[in-house]
Write a structure and sequence with these properties.
The protein has one domain: 3-Layer(aba) Sandwich (GIY-YIG endonuclease), CATH 3.40.1440. Helices cover 29% and strands 21% of the residues. The chain contains four helices and four strands. A hairpin with a 5-residue loop joins strand 1 and strand 2. The protein is globular, with a radius of gyration of 14 Å.
């Protein structure tokens, strides 16, 4: 069973990162204001990016990793600009990034998941 890590854009322009085993169901929960306390007051939401992971533990670790990233680094991830990720690290002494380098397979979110067709 795949697990997903995703990034939403909230109505105030902020980003929310989460993980789930059912992306469509989780998006519906967020849309109904029941997904998370943070997103419940920031609707409407737009799914900007998602990737699948093999295990829940891998999804949880990736979610925690992305939570610690700057806005610019999250935006590079969503663009698929993996070469920019190390340069956007908050700490230059941090270990090399696992995302895009043998980590989970990354992909852009599909428009139909957020109901806007694009």
């Amino acid at each position: 069973m795949p697990f997903y890590v995703y990034i939403l854009q909230c109505s105030d322009g902020s980003y929310y990162t989460g993980h789930t085993d059912n992306l469509d169901q989780r998006m519906a929960q967020h849309g109904d204001g029941m997904g998370a306390r943070y997103t419940s007051t920031r609707c409407p939401l737009k799914l900007l990016w998602a990737t699948d992971c093999q295990t829940r533990e891998q999804a949880w670790e990736l979610e925690k990793q992305v939570h610690g990233w700057s806005r610019a680094k999250k935006e590079a991830l969503m663009r698929g600009d993996f070469a920019a990720l190390p340069g956007l690290s908050r700490s230059k002494s941090a270990p090399a990034e696992s995302v895009g380098a043998g980590g989970p397979t990354l992909r852009q979110a599909q428009g139909e998941r957020n109901g806007d067709g694009g």
